[in-house]
Design goal:
By secondary structure, the protein is an alpha+beta fold. It has helices at about 15-25, 30-50, 115-125, 165-175, 175-185, 190-205, 225-235, 240-245, 325-340, 345-350, 380-385, 390-400, 400-405, 460-465, 475-520, and strands at about 50, 55, 90-95, 100-105, 135-140, 160, 250-255, 260-265, 285-295, 300-310, 310-320, 340-345, 355, 370-375, 385-390, 405-410, 425-430, 440-445. It has two domains: about 15-20 and about 60-340, Beta-lactamase (3-Layer(aba) Sandwich), CATH 3.40.710; about 350-465, Peptidoglycan synthesis regulatory factor (PBP3), Domain 2 (Sandwich), CATH 2.60.410. The strands form six sheets. A five-stranded antiparallel β-sheet has the order 4-3-11-10-9, with helices on both faces. A five-stranded antiparallel β-sheet has the order 13-14-18-17-16.
């Protein structure tokens, strides 16, 4: 059954080539199949004869630590050094922002092996309409034509399998045949799907990645880097369906027309607890996915994801050992969680709450008028879903400089009385991106009583004047005395003093003239 393309999909399905291949495949006889098997054996023998140094091509390398590496201390994961990892290349990023937390030769070009399937399954989810996930697909003969040493889910040509079961089986069993079926379902042919993989990798920002097949079986022209794989994993883990599949420990695929039901278990050892008798020492409680890989040319590989207290990390280790990939990943994750934390805005506010200085407070006030405010979200759901993930150092800096990352506006004065829970103002936080701003009420954490017989503040006087409908002050004895009688008495007194002074000056002048006149008569 043909699945409906996802509404976001913008690709063509070259069905003509696929139909021709199906017609040709139907005409193959037993001799042709025998020749193909012989050719396959010859190919395997050729590969076995090739060597890399002293290793045969089918031997998966097991890297060792540098003799100069210091002993790793699990009690202090923050001290991790690059040479304490077995992996030749590694990277750790914060899943939401993509910030690099730790790296070791992350841009070296390496073979990804089955970690390739992250891209395949992601496109298998994105490019098919969700309403078609429960539809069945028919397995072609070409889809099951994979190298004999491939990991598969033992699909058979002509088998009808539910598409969602195909996605689960491909991820958990790292099934190469499943990847081929996804490729043909999405793009009509494996070649067209590989083109889509490369196009989307470039769109995501991968600069050193090229895919030659949908499953990761070795090809010299099939390569990537730890950094690019982290980018691909980051995009994949943003899809809810992918996260659900990648975090599944085991599941049962129902019986099909050509197969009994399949009980499949994830190859991700970080998800497996083990048993009481034999616990898995690599079980990591915070792990939530995602994909393993291994091949003689790629070594052992793993792309992991873990989540703790709101912090989500993505790690990549390439060309490492079988057990070393789990040890390396745990070291990286523990390092990341020792460096990063997640806080909501109220939690950030509580690290350094705002304090205001009130006026007119009672003399027996325990805080001497200082009032600490609390941050209460107006939209509790949106606030709970909005977090800031960053290093401990940066979070502390944000808390110390809260006014620089928020907008604070007070809605009343700071004069007592103030009741506990009373809204004093608002604080607005603008998340990155196009998310709507979040508004928080700034409320009093306690009651501040008013001082008895406290003089009115200037603000109170202005408020009373503005509230009085009479522009003139009310007439009272106090007003008459203070504003009329006292000024009038002062004016009268001043006039009397001036009059006395003027009279005195006149007398002085008259006496002076009289003395001059008497002197002249003599």
């Amino acid at each position: 059954m043909k699945l409906a393309p996802h509404p976001r999909a913008d690709c063509t399905n070259p069905e003509k080539d696929a139909i021709i291949r199906r017609i040709l495949s139907r005409g193959e006889g037993q001799p042709t199949k025998l020749l193909k098997r012989i050719a396959g054996l010859l190919l395997v023998l050729t590969v076995l004869l090739q060597s890399t140094g002293a290793l045969a091509a089918d031997t998966i390398p097991q890297p060792t630590l540098s003799p100069e590496a210091a002993a790793y201390d699990s009690e202090h994961p923050e001290d991790l050094e690059a040479n304490q990892l077995y992996a030749a290349s590694a990277i750790l990023i914060e899943a939401d922002s993509g910030k690099v937390i730790f790296e070791k030769d992350p841009d070296a070009v390496r073979y990804p092996a089955s970690t390739t399937k992250i891209m395949t399954i992601m496109l298998g989810i994105m490019m098919v309409d969700p309403s078609s996930y429960d539809n069945t697909v028919i397995v072609s003969e070409r889809a099951v034509d994979v190298p004999e040493d491939s990991s598969t889910m033992d699909l058979k040509a002509g088998e009808e399998i539910r598409y969602m079961d195909l996605l689960y089986g491909t991820m958990l069993l790292s099934a190469n045949d499943g990847c081929n079926v996804i490729a043909e379902t999405v793009s009509g042919s494996i070649e067209a799907f590989v083109d889509l993989m490369n196009q989307y990798a470039a769109e995501l920002g991968c600069t050193s990645t090229h895919f030659a097949n949908p499953h990761g079986y070795h090809d010299d022209n099939h390569y990537t880097t730890a950094r690019d794989l982290a980018i691909i994993a980051q995009a994949a883990m943003k899809l809810d369906v992918f996260r659900q599949i990648a975090g599944t420990k085991e599941t049962t695929i129902p019986a099909t027309n050509l197969s009994r039901k399949r009980r499949v278990t994830s190859t991700n050892q970080l998800l497996q607890t083990g048993t009481e008798e034999s616990p898995n020492k690599y079980y990591y409680a915070d792990a939530i996915g995602i994909k393993t890989g291994q091949h003689s040319m790629a070594g052992y590989c793993f792309v992991g994801c873990a989540q703790r207290d709101g912090v989500e990390l993505i790690s990549v280790v390439l060309y490492t050992g079988n057990r070393a990939r789990w040890a390396d990943t745990i070291k990286l994750m523990d390092y990341g969680f020792s460096q990063y934390t997640s806080v909501t805005i109220p939690q950030l506010f509580a690290m350094n709450p705002l304090t205001i200085e009130t006026s007119g407070y009672a003399l027996d006030d325990s805080g001497m008028g200082k009032l600490e405010l609390k941050c209460v979200p107006q939209d509790a759901v949106a606030s709970a879903n909005t977090t800031i993930v960053d290093t401990f150092e940066n979070i502390e800096s944000m808390a110390a400089n809260l006014k620089k990352i928020t907008q604070i506006q007070y809605t009343r004065d700071f004069a007592a009385p103030i009741e506990s829970g009373e809204v004093i103002g608002t604080m607005t936080y603008y998340p990155e991106g196009e998310t709507e701003p979040l508004v928080y009420d700034l409320v009093a954490s306690r009651t501040v009583n008013k001082r008895e017989n406290a003089p009115k503040t200037l603000a109170q006087i202005i408020a009373e004047v503005n509230e009085d409908p009479n522009p003139l002050p009310p007439i009272s004895a106090e007003l008459v005395i203070v504003y009329i009688l006292l000024p009038a008495a002062a004016i009268v007194l001043l006039l009397r003093l001036l009059r006395k002074r003027l009279l005195k000056r006149r007398r002085t002048r008259r006496m002076s003239h009289l003395r001059r006149y008497r002197h002249f008569r003599r």
